[in-house]
Amino acid sequence: MKHLIVRLSATGHGSSCSDLLGLPAGISGVRMEPRLGNKFRIGRKIGSGAFGEIYLGRCTNTQTNEEVAIKLENTKTKHPQLLYESKIYRVLQGGTGIPNVKWYGIDGDYNVLVMDLLGPSLEDMFNLCNQKLSLKTVLMLADQMINRLEFLHSKSFLHRDIKPDNFLMGVGKRSNQVYVIDFGLARKYRDSSTHRHIPYRENKNLAGTARYASVNTHLGIEQSRRDDLECLGYVLMYFLRGSLPWQGLRAETKKKKYEKISEKKVATSIEALCRGFPFEFASYFHYCRSLRFDDKPDYAYIKKLFRELFFREGFQFDYVFDWTILKYQQQSEIVGAPPRAIGLGAGTGSDMVPPFTNVKQSGCEEWRASDLFKVDPSHRVELTPPTAYVSSLANQNAPVANDPSVSKDAPSPSTLCGTEDVSFPIPFLSNVVLDNDALNGGLGFYLWEIDIPLSIIMSKLCTKAIRRVKAVPSKTII
User: Fold this and answer.
1) Residues 151, 156, 162, 165: is their CA dihedral positive or negative?
2) Going by C-beta distance under 8 Å and a sequence separation of 6 or more, which residues neighbour residue 151?
3) Which residues bind ATP (predicted)?
4) DSSP H helical ranges for 95-204
């Protein structure tokens, strides 16, 4: 990325650097070049909110020229929160899915917080995927998101603003990891030393985002751990349903709108909210609402609830999210090559970590299917390919008929699948490769290369086409 550096004349004539770059005026040194604390160079604006603005930045005192996120808040703001937020980040440092703080300070007219640069938010990914996520993707996200809240609560803090915008995906080797951000509304719910819980109180103003706020929060009850979890439940249903019943309500004032949302939320039963989806989601809400104000949630129980659903559906925790599939489809369309199954042959030209890889490399600490099977890599094994993975893809996107990348000379689908109601052929499998490191670790992941276009893999019919294949453990360790 090229950076424009504008130097002013001694008489002060000419446009300021902040004007040319769209940077905020009043940062010391910006009159000469866009720098902060002699350590970071400011680039373009990448976000904004009630707190202020976020800019792309680079470290200037390191050989890596690392990119960072720079959060700016005017020192004259009525309700400053960046200093408070920076202190919470310091407490949380080292936790999985918590961005690292590079620097905090005051520069000119701005409070400045410099942190790791992360990827898109879950709201961004939700919109990218046509505002609906598959069950598999939602369950993989839920597991990490519950872990983030459990860690935050273990440090004696509530988030109090759980929403898709405040969960971000990582970048590079951490692109499959979910991060939690924005602790401007976070509060302690207990004393860090004595663990004494805050007292129950009522008549509190709504803190957070009304769309995802818990029923008790709407009723003015002091928030506790149970409320963060209930908010998360609404986020998960938002992903699955595409919207929540209380969206789109209109009112003359914000207060009246909040009242309407509260009324609709209270009137919507858990069963109605979760209708059409596995019962585990209703069970999750019933559990959250059964908790007393100062109860410690059983995080293991709610994670187990979703994990059992995950395995019952036949999914594999391979980090193949809906947007992973979409990204590889788009890349294939750009280069004009036939889409390939995501595996050893897919390539890793972007920051996206290959989904079938060593979990330690992916930067994700989450649960593994380690008890499902263990394979001795020294023996030839006959394996059924992960048809559950193929099936999960089928649930996420419809197959593309008349795919131009599919050879017209391939055998007919009726030959392979025993059906007549499809209009596209299915090429043969080429080879299947197992990764020794994954096998020795019992991760339960198959690394495989398939010459079936991705659009066809997403058809349930393919589960009949690839019943069993011979596989020899590969000597190559990813």
Assistant:
1) negative
2) 92, 95, 96, 97, 98
3) 71
4) 122-128, 135-154
Q: Is 432 helix (H, G, I), strand (E, B) or coil?
A: strand
Between CA 197 and CA 199 the distance in angstroms is: 6
Structure tokens at 77: 């703001």
Q: Side chain identity at 477, as an amino acid letter?
A: I
Question: How many whole angstroms separate alpha carbon 163 and alpha carbon 236?
Answer: 10
DSSP H helical segments within 298-352, as ranges? 299-312, 322-335
Query: In which band, very low, low, confident or very high, does the pLDDT at 461 lie, cut at 50, 70 and 90?
Result: very low
- 296 burial (CB, 10 Å; 0-12 / 13-18 / 19+) is middle
Distance, in Å, from the CA atom of 57 to the CA atom of 70, rounded to the nearest integer, reads: 6
Q: Does residue 464 have a known ligand-binding role? A: no
CB 185 within 8 A of CB 207: yes
Model-wide pTM > 0.70: no
Under a CB-based contact definition with an 8 Å cutoff, are residues 470 and 364 in contact? Answer: no
Tokens 């059409």 found at: 276
Q: What's the distance, CA 399 to chain centroid?
A: 25
Active site residues: 161
For the record, the structure tokens of 19 come out as 């004007």
pLDDT in tens, 149-201: 999 999 999 999 999 999 999 999 999 999 999 999 999 999 989 999 999 99
